[in-house]
Amino acid sequence: MEPHEAETFVNKRTLYAPIEPYSSGNLKVSDVHTLYWEQSGKPDGHPVVFLHGGPGGGTAPSNRRFFDPEFYRIVLFDQRGAGKSTPHACLEENTTWDLVNDIEKLREHLKIPEWLVFGGSWRSTLALAYSQSHPDKVTGLVLRGIFLLRKKEIDWFYEGGAAAIYPDAWEEFRDLIPENERGSSLVDAYHKRLNSDDLEIQYAAARAWTKWEMMTAYLRPNLENVQKAEDDKFSLAFARIENHYFVNKGFFPSDSHLLDNVDKIRHIKTTIVQGRYDVCCPMMSAWDLHKAWPEAELKIVYDAGHSANEPGISAELVVANEKMKALMG
């Protein structure tokens, strides 16, 4: 590769133009769950799997735009219970390790030997869990808004820490729960309502849970993002599945599981992109991961919050994918 070519890769900082999938399908991964998947970009290009957020958030067409479609074979899929996967918002057989196994089943189904793994927020959790389980199948990692699913991270966002920055949004989230239930755990109180026999109670809790996250995801408020909470189908899957994972501590054997297993992936080329003012996944987690894994490149975006769609974050994610191109030829 000529030096000027590598320089061109690094200089690319804007999202690629919208594209359509060249193939899609459904993969039955258990007696309960069937996953939607799609491929776009270059059919014989370097494979990359995009992991969506939440858990429960599902994929969107805009997710394809982080990758050069003339270089990458871009794989998107909806995790169990999310997006176009069925059954919708289902919690049965829905754990981190089920999803890790699903990623492998999809890789084998698509006959992909190994791939770049891309994910932020919950996706970074899943990306780390997957790569630590299957390091030989991962050519690189691009991570954003690090979330290690530790108790202190859940407590920060759902038990009052982030309320210091968003007291107005917090009150709306908190006030759905009666005062006599607020003393222990709001996550548990929401869990009770998100699993109620009354669908309207589920919907009300899902809207409030989802709105809290959407209102805090950007450095500058994004009304379109906040309005997602009014979509009952989206918010039910998003809130129920997310809460299910958090109540169960990510299904990890210990609070520090992902940090404890960094040695398994220390050799994998990795970029971490982190918004300085990320309220959902504050920088303490990216910093803890960086300290445990100094070989990974940490890019701090000084004028951004949590969302991958904020200009500074999306620019660094594109740059990271461009740098990976240079390494993968």
UniProtKB/TrEMBL annotation:
Keywords: Aminopeptidase, Cytoplasm, Hydrolase, Protease. InterPro entries: AB_hydrolase_1, AB_hydrolase_fold, Peptidase_S33, Pro_iminopeptidase. GO terms for biological process: proteolysis. GO terms for cellular component: cytoplasm. Its main location: cytoplasm. It is an enzyme of class 3 (hydrolase). It catalyses: Release of N-terminal proline from a peptide. GO terms for molecular function: aminopeptidase activity. Its EC number is 3.4.11.5. The active site is at 121 (nucleophile), 278, 306 (proton donor). It comes from the Eukaryota. Residues 47-310 form the AB hydrolase-1 domain. It is found in: Cytoplasm. Belongs to the peptidase S33 family. This is Proline iminopeptidase. It comes from Arabidopsis thaliana (Mouse-ear cress).
